[in-house]
């Protein structure tokens, strides 16, 4: 090929690839053409290698985007969760939940109960992180935070569109559900959220209060019953009843 042609290609190809939204092609085409010459690849093989890189680049960019939008706490994964200190938590079952098996696709729910400090948030985050890695979209929020967000939307007459925005998430993690108190704030929007997602999109709740105390959360008895009913209808329930992990760790250090 004449040098003039090569120069022309070098000047125009990046523009063409950019407008085709092929950033990995753009990044690699030149180096790969040298590889192709070295290994005697034909045009088809060269194109195939670039396309494979583009696809894997696209997958990892999507994963990074989903991980960022999830707002999941960092470092709280299965890799850092010590299953031996929580024997009532079935490891393979939790990993299956992290793959979305038999709940996400059916729009089912997962409820994690237990006292403070036993690893509920850690476990919920680990499941959420694994879901993202498996291609699902997740949003992690403290329940009080999402409640404020929904209340503001209601005040501004845009609650339906706010609920609609949450619909893109396959799983909504509501951490510390039991911290919400009806005497401090109007909580009916939470009921609307639960009803909106019912049998369509999953909710994962962590809570340190048993259902018997949920009267403190919702505005009236009927709303409490209806909320529990919708959440439990297609739900997996995990109970972690043990000493606080932090306390256990502190005691272990003291014993040494
Ligand atoms: P909870 O949400 O039940 O109050 P957390 O998930 O916040 O408890 O756990 C408290 C702290 O202890 C966190 O730093 C968490 O990472 C850690 N922790 C709890 N359980 C475990 C566990 N089984 N393995 C590793 N770390 C744990
Ligand atoms: Mg917690």
Task: Map the helices and strands.
Layout: H1 3-19, H2 23-39, H3 43-70, H4 91-98, E1 109-113, H5 120-133, E2 138-142, H6 143-155, H7 159-166, E3 171-175, H8 188-197, E4 202-207, H9 221-233, E5 235-239, H10 245-255
Parallel strand pairs: 1-4, 1-5, 2-3, 3-4
Helix pairs in contact: 2-3, 3-5, 4-5, 6-7, 8-9
The protein binds adenosine-5'-diphosphate (ADP) and magnesium ion.
Residues 76, 80-82, 85-86, 114, 116-122, 206, 245-246 line the site of adenosine-5'-diphosphate.
Textual characterization of the structure:
With 256 residues, the chain is α/β, with parallel strands linked by helices. It has two domains: 2-68, no CATH class; 78-250, P-loop containing nucleotide triphosphate hydrolases (Rossmann fold). The protein contains ten helices and five strands, in the order H-H-H-H-E-H-E-H-H-E-H-E-H-E-H. It has helices spanning 3-19, 23-39, 43-70, 91-98, 120-133, 143-155, 159-166, 188-197, 221-233, 245-255, and strands spanning 109-113, 138-142, 171-175, 202-207, 235-239. The protein has a five-stranded parallel β-sheet with strand order 2-3-4-1-5. Helix 2 runs antiparallel to helix 3 (43-70) and helix 3 packs antiparallel against helix 5. The longest helix has 28 residues, at 43-70. The radius of gyration is 25 Å and the shape is elongated. The termini are far apart. The structure holds adenosine-5'-diphosphate and magnesium ion. Adenosine-5'-diphosphate binds next to helix 5 and helix 10.
């Amino acid at each position: 090929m004449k040098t003039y042609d090569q120069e022309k290609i070098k000047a125009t190809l990046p523009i063409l690839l950019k407008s085709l939204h092929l950033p990995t092609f753009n990044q690699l085409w030149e180096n790969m053409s040298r590889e192709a010459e070295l290994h005697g690849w034909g045009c088809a093989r060269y194109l195939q290698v670039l396309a494979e890189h583009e696809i894997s680049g696209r997958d990892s960019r999507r994963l990074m985007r989903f991980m960022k939008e999830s707002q999941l706490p960092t470092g709280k994964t299965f890799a850092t969760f010590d299953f031996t200190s929580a024997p009532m938590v079935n490891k393979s079952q939790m990993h299956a939940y992290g793959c979305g098996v038999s709940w996400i696709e059916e729009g089912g729910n997962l409820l994690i109960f237990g006292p403070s400090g036993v690893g509920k948030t850690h476990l919920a985050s680990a499941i959420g992180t694994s879901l993202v890695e498996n291609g699902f979209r997740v949003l992690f929020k403290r329940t009080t935070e999402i409640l404020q967000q929904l209340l503001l939307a209601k005040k501004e007459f845009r609650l339906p569109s706010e609920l609609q925005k949450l619909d893109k998430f396959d799983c909504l993690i509501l951490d510390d559900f039991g911290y919400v108190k009806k005497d401090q704030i109007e909580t009916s929007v939470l009921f609307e959220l639960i009803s909106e997602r019912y049998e369509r999109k999953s909710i994962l709740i962590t809570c340190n209060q048993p259902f018997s105390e949920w009267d403190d959360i919702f505005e009236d008895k009927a709303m409490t019953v209806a909320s529990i009913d919708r959440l439990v209808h297609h739900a997996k329930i995990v109970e972690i009843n043990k000493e606080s992990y932090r306390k256990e760790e502190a005691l272990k250090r003291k014993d040494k």
